[in-house]
Amino acid sequence: MSSGEGLPIPSLTLTSHPGEEPDGSPILLDQVGITHFSISVADVNALAEELLSKGVEPAGPRESFVDAEGNFRYIYVRDPNGILIQFDNGGSG
Fold first, then answer.
1. In terms of pTM, does the model score above 0.85?
2. pLDDT tens across 15-71, in order?
3. Which terminus in the chain has less CB density within 10 A, N or C?
4. H or E segment and range at residue 85
5. Does domain 36-89 have CATH number 3.10.180.10?
6. Contact, 35 vs 86, CB < 8 A?
């Protein structure tokens, strides 16, 4: 894939195998391998509040994700398989 300017467009392919149960546990931050995905969004504070309002549990205490004013700097959540996903500011939308 490339943009109209011939630049490559990053992509990530995720697959699942219906009917197969995961074997094992998600790896932890201090283990070898991919420990989490990080996704930059335009407004992490709005996204975090939306996730929390929909019952998504943060992967840690709220205090560790917010600044002195109570705004989210980033947030970690877990996907249905327990994999960490980090959202932070920096994206354009």
1. no
2. 777 887 767 777 777 877 777 888 888 899 999 999 999 999 999 998 999 999 989
3. C
4. strand 84-89
5. yes
6. no
Q: What angle do CA 78, 49, 62 make, to 5 degrees?
A: 65
- Exposure letters 18-31 (e unless 16+ CB within 10 A, then b): eeeeeeeebeeeee
Residue 88 has φ and ψ, to the nearest 5°, of -145, 165
Hey, where are the domains in the chain? Answer: 36-89
User: Given the structure tokens 């283990």, which residue do they identify?
Assistant: 31
Q: What's the token pair of residue 81?
A: 């398989």
Distances in Å between the Cα of 51 and the Cα atoms of 15, 47, 55, 59 are 24, 6, 7, 12
Q: What is the CA radius of gyration of the chain?
A: 16
Place of tokens 């998504």: 56
pLDDT at 90: 73
